[in-house]
Amino acid sequence: MKIATYNINGINGRLPVLLKWLKEAKPDIVCLQELKSVQEKFPIKEIERLGYEAVWNGQKSWNGVAILSKGLPMQIVRDRLPGDRKDIHSRYIEVIVAQMLVGNLYLPNGNPAPGEKFDYKMKWFQRLKKHAKYLLSENVPVILAGDYNVIPTELDVYKPERWRTNALFRQEPRRAYKALIAQGWLDAIRHLHPEQRVYTFWDYFYKSYERNASLRLDHFLLSPQLSYRLSAAGVDSHVRGWKKTSDHAPVWLLLDD
To answer: What is its EC number (predicted)?
Structure first.
C-alpha cells in the first residue's frame, strides 16, 4: 500500500499538478495540506474522475486539509484537533481507512518568532502531543502524516546556521517534535534514511530548487503496530520542478500487506 502526504499550497491553483502526479505516482491514500479553498470549492469531481474519493475540511484563503483514497472506504473520526474548541483553523482531519487510523495535520508555521503566531504554534504542538499519546494508548495502527512545519535536526536543513531564529528550527518546536517521537512513534523517512539529507520543501525565492537549498518539513509518524510493515519511503522531488507547482514535494511510503 502506498501512502503519500503533500502540501499542495492551493488545491485549485495547483490542480493540474496534483492530477498529473496522482496519475504518475498512483498512491492509494493521500493526505493534502494547505488547500486554501472553502469547503464548496474543493475540486471533488476532477478527483473522482481519477477513481479517488475524498474527505476534506476547507478554509477560505488559508489552511485546509483533505484525505484522498482510491478504492478504500473512509470513515471520518475527527475534523479538528482536540483540546481547544475556540480554534477554528482547518488544520487536522482523521479517518479510519484500510483497517488503520490516518491523521492528516498542518501544524502552524509560527513566524515571526517570538510572538503570538509562535505561541499558537507551540500550543497547537502541545495539543498534538496529547492527542498522539491518546492514540498510542488505543493500541491501534496509526499514521500521523502532514506538514509539521518543523525541521527536526541539522541533517534536515541545507544551512542550519541561517535558520536558528526561524520558527521552523527554533529549539522549542524541535524539542516538541523530539518529545513526540519519544512517545513511541517512528519517523519513517529518517528511519529508512538515517544519514541522508532528505528534503521536502524548496522556497520559491533564490532558485532554491535549482540549488537544492531545502528543508525537511513533511513527516510520517507510524505507531508500533505499523512500523514493522514499513518497506520504503521517499520524496517525489522532481514534482517540485514542474510548472506552477507547490513549494513542497510529495512524500510517500510503502507498507507491506
So the answer is: 3.1.11.2
Active site annotation includes 203: no
Give the chain's end-to-end CA distance (angstroms, integer): 7
DSSP type of residue 228: T
Q: For this structure, is 28 an active site residue? A: no
pLDDT in tens, 151-189: 999 999 999 999 999 999 999 999 999 999 999 999 999
Cβ neighbors of 157 (< 8 A, separation 6 or more) are 151, 163, 169, 214, 215, 216
Model pLDDT, residue 196: 97
CA dihedral sign of residues 50, 99, 200, 192: negative
Task: Specify the length of the chain in residues.
Answer: 257
CATH of 2-255, one of 1.20.120.80, 3.40.50.2300, 3.60.10.10, 3.40.50.300: 3.60.10.10
Catalytic residue, from 63, 131, 149, 219: name it: 149
